[in-house]
Design a protein that fits this description.
single chain; mainly beta; four-stranded antiparallel β-sheet; elongated
């Protein structure tokens, strides 16, 4: 392969360009044939165990199954997943503000039970669980994966007169996902899975809501999170003849990251007795970053990677409607809730992560490009809020993501608030 001339390469999800020479490292976009071209280039200046792999594969000639397996598209979803967690933190804080308004609407319905007078200060605790799954066709830009996320939140809010609430919260989150295994092939045995990502994070949020006249409201929230990531990449090295024993690649890496969000909402609540219907609009900005890291080669395969710093940004608008109905009982008030949202993404474009083999002295780079996110999708949720004597207010809520291509998400949140 002549790496001293630029050439255009076809890739699964777009176009890639390779450049050669020590002064201009080779570069290619994620795709099966493109990874083969990248590996040929990397085998021109290998060291250590990588030189052994290049030798047994006649200068880097891989089987088609191994091209797909070694393609490090596990790295391409880390930043977008981190961004989704920032968006979830924003949504949780927005839900807290909505709950405050529903609690205010629910209190007058307590005419059949004895509800103690509430003070201005409240403390609250929430627990959120989320399950998600991404489907992908074989050899797509991204790998299929599934996983779960759990977050615990504690906080305090203050009722500033009859028209406003302010508050802050702290959260701890645990996240885990696993990539699906490669497909089996001719004399090709995949590993049990393609690796995975684990993450622990702490975050802090502030929020405020103010009534604008009788029925209108405005709210705002912002937050920041600090995260530790652990990455696993499982792959298989196999030369093109498929006659030499394959080598399993088990590489791990760790990195720090941050998440940010800011959200602004405006709405109007129509009330008819105990029924409240409220259209609203939001603008939500979020950002995630993950520091660059270098993988550790657990079994001496010579195929550990350097992975560049990753960033993802989102600017989304939300148009929704929330409905609630206060039902008085002898022991308190029940407030059933339902909501439906249309969300449009303005800014979250396909991201590129640059990788290189640690033992390639020429530092040949491979550009991993993820799939473009959906622009339009929906959220639907239902919940129950209970306004009990002595200022005790438990709740439970369920939300589902709808209309997002090849991605499913279900979220359950339960919590309790005590007015002091």
């Amino acid at each position: 392969m002549d790496i001293h001339k630029a050439r255009l390469l076809a890739a699964v999800g777009g176009l890639g360009i390779a450049f050669g020479g020590a002064a201009s490292p080779a570069m290619a976009q994620a795709g099966n044939a493109d990874f083969q071209d990248f590996f040929f280039s990397a085998c021109e200046a290998p060291t250590g165990a990588l030189a052994n792999q290049c030798g047994v594969s006649a200068g880097g000639d891989l089987s088609g199954d191994s091209e797909s397996s070694l393609n490090p598209n596990q790295t391409s979803v880390a930043a977008s997943n981190a961004l989704a967690k920032a968006q979830a933190l924003a949504a949780e804080t927005e839900a807290r503000l909505e709950a405050l308004r529903d609690e205010d609407n629910g209190e007058p319905g307590a005419n059949t039970g004895k509800i103690a007078g509430f003070g201005p200060w409240s403390v609250f605790a929430n627990f959120e669980a989320e399950w998600f799954e991404q489907d992908r066709q074989a050899y797509a830009n991204e790998r299929a994966y599934d996983g779960d996320r759990y977050r615990g939140t504690i906080g305090v809010d203050y009722r500033a007169g009859a028209n406003a609430h302010i508050g802050l919260s702290l959260s701890y989150e645990d996240y885990s996902s696993s990539f699906v295994a490669d497909l089996p092939g001719n004399n090709f045995t995949p590993q049990a899975n393609g690796g995975g990502v684990k993450n622990e994070a702490i975050s802090a949020s502030v929020f405020a809501s103010v009534a604008l006249g009788e029925n209108a409201w405005f709210d705002a929230s912002a937050g920041i999170g600090w995260a530790d990531y652990d990455f696993r990449r499982n792959a298989v090295f196999q030369e093109s003849s498929r006659t030499i024993a394959q080598t399993n690649v088990n590489a791990t890496g760790s990195a720090d990251g941050k998440q940010y969000f800011a959200s602004f909402g405006l709405g109007y609540d129509y009330s008819a007795g105990a029924l409240s219907v409220g259209p609203y609009a939001r603008l939500r900005w979020s950002r995630s970053t993950i520091d660059a890291y270098t993988e550790t080669d657990a079994n001496g395969s010579g195929l550990a990677l350097n992975v560049s710093k990753q960033r993802a940004n989102s600017l989304a608008s939300v148009l929704g409607v929330n409905m609630s109905h206060a039902i008085g009982t002898s022991w308190g008030v029940i407030v059933p809730q339902a909501r439906f949202e249309y969300e449009h993404e303005f800014d979250d474009d396909a991201a590129t992560t640059f990788t290189s083999l640690v033992l390639d002295s020429a530092n040949t780079q491979f550009a991993v490009v993820n799939d473009s996110p959906d622009r339009d999708y929906f959220n639907a949720g239902i919940g129950l809020l209970f306004v009990l004597p002595n200022g005790i207010m438990p709740f439970i809520d369920y939300e589902a993501l709808l209309g997002y291509s090849n991605f499913d998400r279900h979220r359950v949140t339960a919590g309790i608030r005590f007015e002091l």
